[in-house]
Amino acid sequence: MDNAKIEARLDQITNMLTELIRIVGNPNAAVEGLRKDVDELKSDMKEVKQTLKEHTEKLDYVLFKIATHDADIFNLKRVKP
Question: In the chain, fewer beta carbons within 10 Å around the N or the C end?
C-alpha cells in the first residue's frame, strides 16, 4: 500500500471515529438532561407533598372548629328561653 492510500484510510477511520463519538455523545447528553429533569421533578414533588401536608393540617383544624361551632349552636338552640 502506498502512503496516499494509507493516509486516505486513516482519514476515513478518523472521520468514522469522530462520527461515532458524536453519535454516542448525543444520547449521553440527552440522558444527563433527563436526569436533571427527574431531579427537579423530585424536588418539586417534595415541595408539593409538604404543602399538601400543611394544607391538610389546616383543613383538619378548620373542620374541627366547624364541628365545635355546630355543637355550640345546637346547644344554644336547645337552651333557648
Answer: C
Reading phi first (left if > 0) and then psi (alpha if -120 to 50, else beta), residue 80 is in beta
Amino acid code (one letter) for 41: L
Set of cell numbers at residue 65: 372548629
Query: Which 3-state string (H, E, C) describes the chain?
Result: CCHHHHHHHHHHHHHHHHHHHHHHHHHHHHHHHHHHHHHHHHHHHHHHHHHHHHHHHHHHHHHHHHHHHHHHHHHHHHCCC
Instruction: Determine the Cα–Cα distance for residues 46 and 52; give it in Å rounded to an integer.
Output: 10
d(CA 2, CA 55) in angstroms, rounded, equals 79
pLDDT digits (tens, 9 = 90+) for 22-56: 888 778 888 888 999 999 999 999 999 999 999 99
In the numeric block, which cell numbers belong to residue 38?
427527574
